Amino acid sequence: MSLTAGSRLGPYEIAALLGAGGMGEVYRARDTRLARDVAIKVLPSDLAHDAESLARFEQEARAVATLNHPNIVALFDIGTHDGSPFVVNELLEGETLRERLAKGSIPPHNAVEFGIGIAHGLAAAHAKGILHRDLKPGNVFVTGDGVVKILDFGLAKLVEPKAGLTPKEKETTVPQELATEPDVVLGTIGYTSPEQLRGEPPDTRSDVFAFGCVLYEMLSGKSPFLRSTGADTVTAIISKDPHPLSSKDRVIAPLNEIVKRCLEKRPDDRFSSAHDLALVLQAYSRGSKTPRAVRVAPATSRWRRAAAGVLFAVALFAAFFVGWKMVSGPRQAQARAAGGRAIRIVVLPFENFGSPDDARFAEEVTEEITSRLANLARLAVISSTTATQYDRRGKTVAQIARDMGVSYVLEGSVRWDRGGAPGRVRITPELIRVADDRHLWSERYDRQVADTFAIETEVADGVVQALNLALGKAD
Q: Which of 31, 134, 152, 207 is catalytic?
C-alpha cells in the first residue's frame, strides 16, 4: 500500500514517505488529535497478505509496546488501514547510524557514548524477555542532540521471562510466542552471531555479539566480518577473528579488549548480559578522561592488568547482592526501598600486604569498585576520597557504619606472591551487613599475573555461584 501526502489513516494525516524496507514503509504524519508529528510504519501491500510477515509485524508492535526506555523508539499506537496493519512511533529527527558511518568512523569517545546508550536499550529489552536479533547500524538512530535509539524490533525473538518477576512485571513481559524457527537465520548476515548461523537458538549474548560488530564498525569505519560474498561472510563470522583495532583507529588496548570480548565465538566467552557490558563501557568512559586510567600498562604493570577481571567480578557481586536486597531481602530492606531511600554502602580501602610500591594498586582496587557501584540506581556509595581519608583505626564495623551512615561495608585485602614467574596476586573481598555484623559473602581470587582479561568470565561465573550460596545463607 503506497500512501500519498494528504491521505488519512484514522486520525493520522500522511505528510511524506520517509523510507521503505523489507518489513514496511515509513511515513511522516500528523496526529490530528494530539497535534504532533509522528512516524507511521505500514506493511507493504505486496506483503500484506503474507501470514509470516503479518505475524512479525504484530510481534514488533507487541515487543516495542512493553518497552519504555530513552534508548528505544517509543510506540504510540497500532491499527489497520484497508487490511494493512500499521504502527505509530515517535518521529525522530537526525540520521541512522548507517548514514552517520557513511561519513567515516566515529571518534572513540563518541562511539563509546553511543555504545553505552545502545547497551542500556538492549538491557531494558532483555529484562522484558525480548531479543532484538537484527541489531545493525541501520537499526540504530542518532537524534540531533546525540541520543541513540534502537529501531525495528520486527525480528525480535521473544524468550521466556525469568523466574522471580513481580506480578506487575509479569503483566508487562511478553510471553513466549510467535518465535521464529530455530533453523531460520534472520537479521543482516554481517551482524549475525555464530550460533544463529549454525541454526542454534539465540539468547541475549547473541545481541551482545551484534553489538560488538556495531561498536567495531563505529571505531574502524568497517564491518568486522563483511566479505565480498555471503558464504565468505558466514565463514568469517564462524571461524575467523577480525583484524584487531589499533592505534591507527585511535583505539587503545582496554577498549579493544571490550570489543574482542563481545565478538567471542562462544557465547559463554562474551559478556553475560548487556547490563554488564554497559557498566564496563561506563567505567571505561570515565577512566578514559584521565591519563592514569587509559594508559596501556607496560610489563611492570602486569599486576594491574591481571586483576582487571577480578575487580569487575567483585563489583558485579556487590552490585547484584545489594540490588537483590532492595527487592528480595529482609522486610527492613524492602521498607527502605519502598520509601525511596537509597541503600548506603562504603567500600573501605583494601589493605595492602605487599611492598610500599604496591600501595597504589590497593588504592586502585577501592577506586574501581567504588566507581562501578556508584552507577547503580537506588544505591548511595560513599566516595572513595571520603572513605580513604576516614581514620578507621581501632574502630569496629558498627562504629564505622554509624560514622558514615551506611548499611553495608565492603572491605578486603591484596596479597602478592612474586616467588616465581609470572607471580600471583590474591584479592580477598568481604561484604558485611552492619545490622547484625554478619559477613554475608567472602571470596578469595588467586590468579597468575600472566592472566589478563581472560580471567574475567571465569571469575564472574564464580561470583554468580557464590552469590546464590550467600543469599541462601542470608535467609
A: 134
